[in-house]
Amino acid sequence: MRWLIDLDGVVWRATTLVEGTDLALAQLRARGDSVRFVTNNSTLSAQDYVAKLASFGIEASVEEVLTSAMAARLALGASQRVFAIGEEGLRSEVAKGNELVTPNELEDAEGLDAVVMGWHRGLTWDLLARACVAIRSGARFFATNRDATYPLERLIVPGTGALVASLVAATAVEPTYCGKPDWPMVELASSHVLPGDTLMVGDRLSTDGAFAAALGVPFALVRSGVAEPAQAGIDVAIEAPTLRHLVANVIEREPKLS
Q1: Residue 38 pairs with which residues in a beta bridge?
Q2: Is the pLDDT of residue 194 over 90?
Q3: pLDDT higher than threshold 60 for residue 92
């Protein structure tokens, strides 16, 4: 069986492991199941995510991590002069085949090819102003994801979608969204999907559930992250409090999920 598993709100909340997740993933490995981690969080590189997983005792390889930064690079293409507003995971990924440009003055933002925005805990008015000038001057606008919120250990804080909204308001330009459930991430993940034998696991119906629908695979909802109300058109094949409970339930009823 193949598993596509979200990270934030499913495997961990910020720096705290969701209880039992390490044991559940070890159980899947022992069964010989295929595991891919699919995240809308662009702050870390694939290598950094492997290291973070390892810090919780979870086995993973770089090839098993798919991030919205990778999807953004896919959508962006190559040989672009890019203003990347985000943390190192986004900047290092977008820099592959492109030139990163950080405008020193507002006028320097004119004539850039693209602005790519991800979750950025150091976001300032100056960065927004330069991005605004670039987009209004014709730069293409990309956003790593639509997630309006981000789950910490106990509290919920603004996510990428909330930050992107300020630029949308200032420019009247909607970005190309690159993470789940949009086409760049669908294209990035499609080679890891085997119809009838793949399950997408996430905590958000609006992104993870819609992503599963776009891929044509069942969606498993866990309630350890961001709670969202039911949404029309998003079917939940199975629901559980945490990944640990989900894995136990799926193994028990596996033939019924395909």
Answers
A1: 66
A2: no
A3: yes
> Up-side HSE of residue 111: CA atoms within 13 Å toward CB?
4
Distance CA 215, CA 4 (A): 11
Q: Is 176 exposed, middle or buried (0-12, 13-18, 19+ CB in 10 A)?
A: middle
Rounded mean pLDDT of 70-77? 98
Cis peptide before 181 (omega within 30 of 0): yes
- State both tokens at 192: 């890891």
Return the structure tokens found at 105: 């003055």
Residue that the structure tokens 């992250």 belong to:
225
Least confident of 129-143, 156-170, 220-234: 220-234
Q: Write down the pTM of the prediction.
A: 0.94
φ, ψ of residue 179 in degrees (nearest 5): -85, -170
Measured at the CA of 130, the angle between CA 126 and CA 133, to 5 degrees, comes to 140
CATH architecture, range 69-177: 3-Layer(aba) Sandwich (3.40)
3-class DSSP state for residue 202?
strand
3-state helix, strand, coil in the chain (%, to 5): 40, 20, 40
> How many Å apart are CA 30 and CA 256, to the nearest integer?
22
Among residues 43, 39, 51, 9, which one has the least CA distance to residue 122?
Answer: 43
Encode pLDDT of 45-72 as tens digits. 999 999 999 999 999 999 999 999 999 9
| pLDDT for 256 | 57
